[in-house]
Amino acid sequence: QVQLVESGGGLVQAGGSLRLSCAASGLTFSWYKMGWFRQAPGKEREFVGAIRRSGGSIDYADSVKGRFTISRDNAKNMVYLQMNSLKPEDTAVYYCAAVFDYGLTRPTDYHYWGQGTQVTVSS
User: Which pLDDT score is estimated for 56?
Assistant: First the structure.
């Protein structure tokens, strides 16, 4: 049974930082590309970024490029999202997700999802 469990969300002031973690179990983690998505109230789930299997290639949404950093530790079955210079518009529930084969930026590409962690950025 595959499980993805996010942690690290919370309330932070604009300009602050948070680090989200996602612990994976029940899958051969190094075989999967890992993505981060977010969903604000009343909005569609949107791509934040994704990291390839070895961690050598990472893609980011334009809205977070230069502020967010994704990394992974295949030995620990963990993926991370370091968020700096946070803005109120970054407020959302953040999800990690895993995809085995094709696709990267669309939610429908992904096979497995975590339950999400709330990030709230106050102005």
Answer: 82
